[in-house]
Specification:
With about 80 residues, the protein is mostly helical. The chain contains 2 helices and no strands. Helix 1 runs antiparallel to helix 2.
């Protein structure tokens, strides 16, 4: 830049409130997208494990399915903190 300062007009109280609402909505959308991506990743892991161990008994598959759910909870806890 050439060293000149950019002057911005302060937001009116209504505009500031609206901007906060939009920002909050974007954060909510981001949270939902993150949750869905974690769900998809966990489902992919489950499918890969099922394909790699087709002869495994039902007990081990249930245990394998439980692990991604536990990992998902940890990811969500980290995200919300």
């Amino acid at each position: 830049m050439n060293g000149t300062a950019v002057v911005t007009t302060p937001l009116s109280p209504g505009s500031e409130s609206r901007e906060r609402e939009v920002f909050s909505l974007l954060l909510d959308i981001n949270q939902e997208l993150l949750y869905e991506s974690v769900q998809l990743q966990n489902r992919q892991l489950e499918l890969k494990k099922e394909q790699s161990a087709p002869n495994a008994d039902d007990g081990s598959l249930a245990e394998q399915a439980r692990k991604p759910a536990e990992e998902e909870k940890l990811v969500q806890q980290d995200y919300f903190q």
